[in-house]
């Protein structure tokens, strides 16, 4: 991976609001062509991080670069190649969808009438383009925001909860659009609380908690990283005591007469060997299929307990 | 809002015209003449500029503060800034728009057309003899000072809307200052001593000082001794620079959040 491949790089990025630390020493890299999922519970610092990428919020300390340029000194150049769909899209309520797009196209001097028609068609809003924004449903407002973000055909697109307010069919269309944009070589940064959405759309994920990245990687790698196995044993208390001694067992929980272990997949034979050596026999051992959602909940809850 | 201001102009002109067209029986002839002059050229210009300065300042405050503050309420400020990151351009473009809006559209065109209309009604024909070179110069002076007086309130409304990130703060703050100041100036002027010096540093008192005596000054008419035009111009310029500087600084340095 060369420097040119990095679209976003944050180094020790920190944002304080008084005593509240919204983003804490965040180090992040988003590479060209990635569809990057940014996950975290409410208040984790996701929107603050996105706003810092767009120059809306100034970091307290640390650096943030987009396309290798400092956001602080080269914002206009960066925004010329960046589109963003922010949560709660803002448009002039007394103007039509078309006129709103004209206004924002003229502000950045990017986006012709033909391009406006093209993006309205792309997000299926062409028929209602002449209606006033105030009369739009939440889903239509969200579509207009996406159209606005795509007006200047940006290389890097930030989506903040883009399927908010959309019906299932609309959600599917937007997800397909994000996948298509990713396939076209655009770099996508997706903030969504819909974990299955991130799992479907993204090829790289970072999980953030209290302003810090706590896990990052391809969704499949993250799921593998959290290898979980369920076992049924002859003496459950003794098995717990024995497995607790092993540092490669990261967690043990009981579900009835089952033990749920988190341990690397290559250690599964060691589990049965260890237990058998101490007179505890395994009658059942099964790998548990996990989703990104379970990994997310596990990681964020662990942090909470700490 | 332009319709409201146009309505004010219409109301004033047509009310005065109505009185002059069918005056009350006991109305003295001099009074009737004065009223006629108000809505016919050349004196109609004074009415136009005076109305623009007084009612215009109030309505412009509402327009300016709404235009800036609503950008926060609607979220369009973020939509704008994520397309064009240069913040001072945003404030500058708003300011230019307000100045053009205030002076060219409102004060001049509407007032001019109405005055033209009523002049023709009353006199039957339009006589341009009064339009000498010196009178044109006087008109430009009135125009310039009207602009200058309005500019201070436009900048104050922009600053307060940005400070409060809301139209309400801009409108309430500017109009509150506008009315409270006029009361305070009267009190200070009557108090004497060092208190009587305070109005020399206030906006309204200095606007009263720059407005030509030929203009009707309305609420800006000050009971105390006015400072010189030069002093008032400099004082108002300082206010303009401070308001604009603070607006730019705040808008550039503060975070834009939801």
Please provide a written account of the structure.
Chain A starts with 5 loop residues before the first strand and ends with a helix. In chain A, helix 4 packs across helix 5. Chain A has 2 domains: 3-218, P-loop containing nucleotide triphosphate hydrolases (Rossmann fold, 3-Layer(aba) Sandwich); 227-289, Alpha-Beta Plaits (2-Layer Sandwich). Chain A has helices spanning 46-53, 75-79, 97-108, 113-122, 138-150, 168-183, 195-201, 219-225, 236-244, 268-277, 292-305; strands spanning 6-17, 20-31, 35-39, 61-66, 69-70, 82-85, 156-160, 187-191, 204-209, 212-217, 228-233, 251-255, 258-262, 282-288. Chain A has a 6-stranded mixed β-sheet with strand order 6-7-8-3-9-10, with helices on both faces. A 4-stranded antiparallel β-sheet of chain A has the order 2-1-4-5. Chain A is α/β, with parallel strands linked by helices. Chain A has 11 helices and 14 strands. In chain A, 36% of the residues lie in helices and 28% in strands. The relative contact order of chain A is 0.13. In chain A, strand 7, helix 6 (168-183) and strand 8 form a beta-alpha-beta unit. The longest helix of chain A has 16 residues, at 168-183. The longest helix of chain B is centred in the middle third of the chain and has 37 residues, at 87-123. Chain B has one domain (2-253). Chain B has 258 residues and is mostly helical. In chain B, 36% of the residues are buried. Chain B has 9 helices and no strands. Helices cover 75% and strands 0% of the residues of chain B. Chain B has helices at residues 2-21, 29-38, 44-74, 76-81, 87-123, 133-164, 167-191, 203-210, 229-253. The chains are: A alpha/beta (306), B mainly alpha (258). The A-B interface holds A 47, 51, 54-58, 75-76, 78-79, 82, 84, 86-93, 104, 107-108, 110, 145, 148, 152 and B 74-86, 253, 255-258.
């Amino acid at each position: 991976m060369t420097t040119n491949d990095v679209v976003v790089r944050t180094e020790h990025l920190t944002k304080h609001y008084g005593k509240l630390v919204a983003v804490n020493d965040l180090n992040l890299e988003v590479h060209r062509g990635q569809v990057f999922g940014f996950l975290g519970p409410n208040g984790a610092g996701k929107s603050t991080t996105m706003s810092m990428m767009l120059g809306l919020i100034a970091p307290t300390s640390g650096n943030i670069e987009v396309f290798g340029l400092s956001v602080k000194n080269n914002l206009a150049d960066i925004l010329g190649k960046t589109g963003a769909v922010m949560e709660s899209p803002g448009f002039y309520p007394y103007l039509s969808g078309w006129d709103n797009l004209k206004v924002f196209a003229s502000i950045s001097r990017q986006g012709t009438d033909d391009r406006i028609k093209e993006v309205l068609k792309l997000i299926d809003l062409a028929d209602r383009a002449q209606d006033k924004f105030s009369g739009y449903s939440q889903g239509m407002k969200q579509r207009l925001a996406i159209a606005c973000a795509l007006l200047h055909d940006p290389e890097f697109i930030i989506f903040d909860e883009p399927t908010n307010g959309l019906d299932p069919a609309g959600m599917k269309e937007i997800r397909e659009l994000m996948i298509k944009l990713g396939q076209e070589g655009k770099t996508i940064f997706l903030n969504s609380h819909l974990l299955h959405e991130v799992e479907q759309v993204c090829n790289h994920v970072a999980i953030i908690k209290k302003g810090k990245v706590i896990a990052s990687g391809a969704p499949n790698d993250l799921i593998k990283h959290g290898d979980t196995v369920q076992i049924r044993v002859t003496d459950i208390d003794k098995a717990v005591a024995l497995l607790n001694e092993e540092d490669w067992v990261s967690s043990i929980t009981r579900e009835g007469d089952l033990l749920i272990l988190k341990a690397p997949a290559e250690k599964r034979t060691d589990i049965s060997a260890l237990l058998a050596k101490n007179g505890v026999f395994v009658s059942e051992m099964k790998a548990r299929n996990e989703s990104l959602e379970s990994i997310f909940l596990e990681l964020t809850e662990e942090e909470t307990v700490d | 809002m332009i319709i409201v201001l146009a309505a004010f102009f219409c109301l004033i002109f047509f009310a005065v015209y109505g009185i002059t067209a069918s005056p009350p029986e006991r109305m003295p002839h001099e009074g009737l003449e004065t009223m006629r002059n108000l809505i016919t050229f050349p004196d109609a210009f004074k009415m136009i500029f005076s109305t623009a300065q007084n009612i215009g300042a109030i309505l412009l405050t509402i327009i300016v503060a709404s235009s800036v503050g609503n950008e926060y309420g609607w979220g369009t400020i973020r939509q704008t800034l994520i397309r064009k990151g240069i913040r001072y351009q945003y404030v500058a473009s708003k300011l230019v728009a307000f100045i053009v809006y205030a002076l060219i559209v409102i004060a001049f065109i509407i007032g001019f057309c109405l005055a033209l209309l009523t002049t023709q009604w009353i006199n039957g024909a339009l006589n341009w003899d009064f339009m000498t070179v010196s009178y044109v110069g006087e008109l430009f002076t009135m125009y310039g000072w009207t602009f200058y007086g309005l500019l201070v309130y436009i900048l104050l409304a922009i600053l307060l809307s940005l400070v409060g990130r809301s139209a309400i703060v801009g409108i309430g703050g500017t109009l509150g200052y506008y009315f409270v100041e006029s009361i305070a100036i009267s009190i200070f002027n009557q108090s004497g001593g060092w208190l009587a010096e305070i109005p020399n540093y206030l906006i309204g008192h200095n606007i009263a000082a720059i407005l030509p005596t030929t203009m009707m000054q309305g609420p800006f008419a000050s009971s105390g001794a006015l400072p010189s035009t030069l002093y008032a111009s400099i004082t108002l310029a300082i206010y303009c620079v401070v308001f604009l500087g603070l607006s730019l600084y705040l808008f550039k340095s503060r975070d834009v959040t939801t």
